What we know:
Layout: E1 3-4, E2 11-15, E3 18-22, H1 24-40, E4 49-50, H2 53-59, H3 63-72, E5 76-79, E6 90-93, H4 95-100, E7 106-107, H5 131-142, E8 145-146, H6 164-179, E9 186-189, E10 192-195, H7 202-208, E11 209-211, E12 214-220, H8 224-236, H9 244-254, H10 258-271, H11 293-305, H12 319-329, H13 331-342, H14 347-369, E13 376-378, E14 381-385, H15 389-405, H16 423-428, E15 455-456, E16 461-462
Antiparallel strand pairs: 1-7, 2-3, 4-6, 5-6, 8-11, 9-10, 11-12, 12-14, 13-14, 15-16
Helix pairs in contact: 8-14, 10-12, 11-12, 12-13, 14-15
Amino acid sequence: xxxxxxxxxxKVFSINGKEHKIKxxxxxxxxxxxxxxxxxxxDIQYGYVEIPSKSFKKLYDNYWVYISYLIEIGIIERKPYSxxxxxxxxxxxxxxxxxxxxxxxVILNDxxxxxxxxxxxxxxxxxxxxYKIIQQLKSDFLSAEIDxxxxxxxxIENTPYVDAKKYFYNLIxxxxxxxxxxxxxxxxxxxRLYSNFTFLSSHYREKNIKLKGEKVVEFDISSSFPxxxxxxxxxxxxxIINDYDFKEYCTSIKQKNFYxxxxxxxxxxxxxxxxxxxxxxxxNEIAKRIFAKDIVKSLFQIFLNGDNNRTPFIEGYSxxxxxxxxxxxxxxxYEIIEEIKSTDQQIYYKLSKIxxxxxxxxxxxxxxxxxxxxILTVHDAIYVPQSYSKKVNEVWDKHLNxxxxxxxxxxxxxxxxxxxxxxxxxxxxxxxxxxxMDTQQIQxxxxxxxxxxxxxxxxxxxxYDEFNNDIEEDDWI
Length: 477
């Protein structure tokens, strides 16, 4: 367990007329224990993490003295024991404490686990990446400057409250990266490159990390996996480019409206569902709460990459709801998804392969043009020093426009057509006039080697952090 130093001073605290000496090291221990549980627990509601008394007793016999003291001085709050649900006490940090606290020291005990999983991925689904590029990226990663003196507190969306879980998590990650040695994480696995930088939220990446003394700027792919799914569909079934529904699917992606369009579709259908009607005491129908885009985004990713038997319910609707609607709107894409799942293959590996090879192709191009450039990566995004923003933007747009032009459908005003007669064949590795590719899978060729847990419907918040160990909250943007 990582111990955060809160810089408390020794104090005498009285309970029922009996005095107890409060020792700073035990305050640090108990608060760090709560933080550890908060960070690693996905089932958090309204900021409370439930901790059984026996867990505290294993930590320290007289924990209750410190809990009482911390509640008394406004450091933590405790949710009462529920006789109805027989749940244990829940603990959260008080708003004012989180708002003003600054942690200047973290004693790190948890090291980074290193493992690779190439053996778990079928050979045909393994991304082919030049090892020299990985090594250069590692050198850039190790050269980064990490600021742990000014760590912001980010608010929970649409509320005035500080996201305590996000703050403590990112604080520890920053200290791990700065400490280095056994706390450095840099591994290529599951077709993606992971590092300490990957584990940071986007706000902290841009705020607390520098390259060559400069803050970094981000370039990312909007709706990355829906886009890569379009590329994959054409590779396995080239004639799909003539399908009207597929053209509509690609248009939605190219105009950066995919999740917005899907949200509108689900909410429209949901609003017409008479089975889910509810009424107040006067018999008036209660308006249904709409799905937020973040909820729809997570539902889509669970449908795409998750286990169909793991069906979360939101507002009374499960995974089957989005499956039905997606099948009606994009039947040709739905059929390909279901065909893959029916053979127990992982769509995630297939799409992450396409995504990584595309991103690393851009990185290789950038290194060739600007050998002195330093780059940090996060799956579908790259970060570069601000002074290189204009130069990198030209290369980034060239690659992305080329990919978008290769897809059917209308091109967004944000993109220019990439005029290249061989564009389609180059992107999808197809030979002109090869009719046999209508039915066979085309193998890619490469010339190089939220804060409070899963769901809480009342506030329409959704944060499915633990959905997949290989999936981050930013992966799906």
